[in-house]
Amino acid sequence: MLRVTGTFLDEISHDIPHQNWGEKEWDKDFRAMKAMGIQKVFLIRCGHKRFCTYPSAVLEKEKGAYRPPVDLVDMFLRLAEKHGLDFYFGTYDSGNAWYRPEVRYDVEKEVDLMRRVVDEAWARYGKSKAFKGWYLSQEIARRNERAQACYKVLGEHCKAFSPDLKIFISPGMLGPKDYNEDMQKRGKTIPLREHEEEWNQIMDYVHSFVDVIAFQDGHLNYEDLPDFLAVNKKLCDRHGIECWTNCESFDRDMPIDFLPIKWEKMLLKMTYAAQVGIKDALTFEFSHFMSPNSVYLAAHHLFDRYCEYHGLPARSSDFAPWKD
Amino acid sequence: MLRVTGTFLDEISHDIPHQNWGEKEWDKDFRAMKAMGIQKVFLIRCGHKRFCTYPSAVLEKEKGAYRPPVDLVDMFLRLAEKHGLDFYFGTYDSGNAWYRPEVRYDVEKEVDLMRRVVDEAWARYGKSKAFKGWYLSQEIARRNERAQACYKVLGEHCKAFSPDLKIFISPGMLGPKDYNEDMQKRGKTIPLREHEEEWNQIMDYVHSFVDVIAFQDGHLNYEDLPDFLAVNKKLCDRHGIECWTNCESFDRDMPIDFLPIKWEKMLLKMTYAAQVGIKDALTFEFSHFMSPNSVYLAAHHLFDRYCEYHGLPARSSDFAPWKD
Amino acid sequence: MLRVTGTFLDEISHDIPHQNWGEKEWDKDFRAMKAMGIQKVFLIRCGHKRFCTYPSAVLEKEKGAYRPPVDLVDMFLRLAEKHGLDFYFGTYDSGNAWYRPEVRYDVEKEVDLMRRVVDEAWARYGKSKAFKGWYLSQEIARRNERAQACYKVLGEHCKAFSPDLKIFISPGMLGPKDYNEDMQKRGKTIPLREHEEEWNQIMDYVHSFVDVIAFQDGHLNYEDLPDFLAVNKKLCDRHGIECWTNCESFDRDMPIDFLPIKWEKMLLKMTYAAQVGIKDALTFEFSHFMSPNSVYLAAHHLFDRYCEYHGLPARSSDFAPWKD
Fold it and tell me: Most C-beta atoms within 10 A of its C-beta, which of A177, B248, C106, C196?
């Protein structure tokens, strides 16, 4: 059975309320990740609009960004080294409307800024032994000229100076549980053939610098997932890209956006991915939705169900705060 | 004063996020129910769309249903026996639009499927000493030809082979806190006279097989509740049906859908029900909204307020996980 | 740096789900407030529509109000005395549409009722040593004839019989994170000049009886906050009114309305307020969003981050229930 071997770190989040953890809490959570079999952590984005995960001279100058009270990139890298996890750096997200072609902005300038942020981060943190790759943070679900151009510039740039580092993307699959900027569910399931055609083209375009694609598995109805996963795997294989799944651990079916997913649904999605030959999952994301340290207590139970299922000895009670 | 003597078990839920409990957690929660005076548990539905509470050959074949990782009906029955609770089995809910006459589908076929699921469940679980009745899971708020026909077929069918088992329904009362399928509050309070006329007719139709009606008490404004409860009691008395109330323990007045209700509101609703002579309440539902084991901590305090008020010795701290 | 020295007590709440605390829990929470440096508590409103914080003969007679199970005003005053906190009494809120001039109602009658509630409360509770002031509960964001008239009647009335007591208001600043009655975000940032002109006029009108204005800091985009805070401080200074900030501790940027704010954002807002010379903050509100006793666990961590930042020795673990 497929295992969850990676998780996003949802900093800077734009839609999940913050847990307000300090280093002590993150240290404990990296320990919990390790106990569940996680090997890789992905900073979802190094900055969002004016908020940053590290003090970025580039973003302060160009975007009027705020200096964060803690250098999270430094902290995550230290904790990753301590716990033997690999760290992937997520690129900057300006909050611009990549997805709405009718909104015009200077894409070239934007991508150039993102490139300079990558350079800055590499200069600051590239020496860390835990720094193992890049995550290109635009989440497209279908062909998107602007985002693809962005992938290409950043991807080729990163490959040029860090050829041994892996590059991940984690796109969506267009379905009824996709959200627009106002958090309204929109749209319908894209016809499978269109999904295949568009992603065949996208992969033609990105395969030379993208190492791994982990499609988000939460937008589709469950019954449509097997066919789409099969297409994803086939297309990735054809293009020499590793195919993972992003097995989302939050529930998109509920009026509260978002709380931990029901274990049965997560198991179903992992089973489908395993059936088409996918070997690895990352999840969005452990710390809120699967962690024994989460502020959402249903996550503690999800951790237990996952560990029981996989025969892992860890239990959420191992991390209970009264044992600290 | 009225007591809460029954609770739904919200499996399969379609609008309340899952707590991800395993048997150990459910066992503890049945113990907590007992401590609060609960005697009856109602499986809200045995299946919803493709998700099931037990491995149903019928639903797998006819609906492509998923086999659940745990047989919850078996587990609930064992726990009900262990803790001396009565179990009521909720009928299948296909997710079809019973409430929107403009949406056409083959009602007869649907009801026939539901009947076969009932048969299957009875064959699998009918021997359990805890299996004490049926809950017809369609939640109508006013006259509804399709749902009533469904009640009749299922109700008479169940009565024929299990005449000693009781049959419950738990309809709504149309008010401003009713939600549509997109979780938007809709509608206005139905005029009291219309409510009375329609329910008089409905009860004429169902009284020969429905033993108990427990109207949901959350859709109306509080100030309208006394008059509607009085009508409900009068109509039930006239038709020889037991009149309970479904004293909802979640709060419909808040932007978060849904968290535990304020104790004062729950007490107010129970007081109104007691004033018209209603003797028993069930609640939707204990495990998320009133339980000392809930992932929502306000539920722990609601449990304490309820127990204090009724002079019960139980306290949420008795169930604190650090005492496990 | 600015300190949070006051908090609202969100009784009666109309948009934050209740924690269902009894006196023991409130006692513990007042202790936590004290540990964080809070000196003043503000009852956000003594009643809302038919719900009341104390048994009000006036509201029972005039509004059909419900008698609450606990006299919260009495309890809060006793706890305030015990813990050495100052208590401010929030005026009644009928739920009328102060903000929508097109909705007509008898404002004079409404204000007269509010005045009688104030008299009743003063007669019942005015002897308490902890009773230190009044909070006028209408939350306007811009010029509003009806609410201002209400402020004037209540404010002058309170000043006449309790000249030593202070009067607070806590208006908004019109921005994109304002909510309408249906909990939809509405509107745009008011032009700074309009904000200044309108509040200059409002302060002309209220300065003789309003001692302190604490503008809510959550409606605006973060980047607009410094200019607005500077205007607020300048206008307050000009009118001889103390200028505080209401540094909201809930997050308005998330799809869940509402959970605790990210510490970084709260710190940013406090920093901006300090930069324009504001010395004190109150917050909406401690008990849900910053408290080590909150049902929202992210609040516990926010308490820790706040205390760490200010060099306070208190930690959320001091209040852990397993230490009770």
Answer: B248
CA B81 to centroid of chain Cα atoms: 20
C107 touches chain A (CB under 8 A): no
CA distance C319 to chain B (A): 15
Residues from chain B that touch A255, judged by Cβ atoms under 8 A, are 15, 183, 257-258
Half-sphere exposure of B10 (CA within 13 A, CB side): 22
Contacts of B307 in chain C (CB under 8 A): none
- SS3 of C280, please? strand
Using a CB-CB cut-off of 8 Å, the residues of chain A touching C260 are 17-18, 20
Cα(B164)–Cα(B34) distance, rounded to whole angstroms?
A: 24
Residue type, A298: A
DSSP letter string, C81-108:
HHHT-EEEEEPPB----TT-TTS---HH
Helix axes A145-161, A107-125, angle to 10 degrees: 30
Nearest Cβ partner for A20 among C222, C254, C305: C305
Contacts of A106 (CB under 8 A, 6+ apart): none
Taking the Cβ of residue B274 and every Cβ of chain C, the question of whether any pair is shorter than 8 Å is answered with no
Percent of chain B with pLDDT over 70: 99
Whole-model pTM: value is 0.98
How far is residue A239 CA from its own chain's centroid? 21
Long-range pairs for C204-207: beta carbons < 8 A, 24 or more residues apart: C204/C239, C205/C148, C205/C151, C205/C152, C206/C148, C206/C151, C206/C152, C206/C155, C206/C169, C206/C241, C207/C239, C207/C240, C207/C241
Q: Are A243 and A236 in contact (CB under 8 A)?
A: yes
User: Cβ(B197)–Cβ(B180) under 8 Å?
Assistant: no
CB contact under 8 A, A257 and C259: no
* Alpha carbons B121 and B55: distance in angstroms, whole number: 10
Per-residue pLDDT 10s for chain C (324 aa) are 899 999 999 999 999 999 999 999 999 999 999 999 999 999 999 999 999 999 999 999 999 999 999 999 999 999 999 999 999 999 999 998 887 888 888 999 999 999 999 999 999 999 999 999 999 999 999 999 999 999 999 999 999 999 999 999 999 999 999 987 777 776 799 999 999 999 999 999 999 999 999 999 999 999 999 999 999 999 999 999 999 999 999 999 999 999 999 999 999 999 999 999 999 999 999 999 999 999 999 999 999 999 999 999 999 999 999 999
Please state the length of chain B: 324
Provide CB contacts within 8 A for C27, sequence distance 6+. Answer: C79, C82
**Model pLDDT for residues C267-292, shown as the tens digit of each residue:** 999 999 999 999 999 999 999 999 99
Cβ atoms of B91 and B118 closer than 8 Å: yes
For helices A72-83 and A23-36, what crossing angle results, to 10°? 40
As for the ipTM of the complex, it is 0.97
Q: Which of B20, B177, B300 to mutate to test the interface with A (most CBs of A within 10 A)?
A: B20
Most confident by average pLDDT, A92-96, A193-197, B95-99: A193-197
pLDDT in tens, A104-135: 888 999 999 999 999 999 999 999 999 999 99
Beta-carbon count within 10 A of C52 CB:
27
| C-alpha to C-alpha distance for C179 and C32, rounded to whole angstroms | 30
Q: Are C9 and C287 in contact, with CB atoms under 8 Å apart?
A: yes
**Separation CA A14–CA A51 (nearest Å):** 10
Q: Which residue type does C52 have?
A: C
Which residues of chain C form beta strands (DSSP E)?
Answer: 3-9, 40-43, 47-48, 51-52, 86-90, 131-135, 166-169, 178-179, 185-186, 212-216, 242-246, 280-283
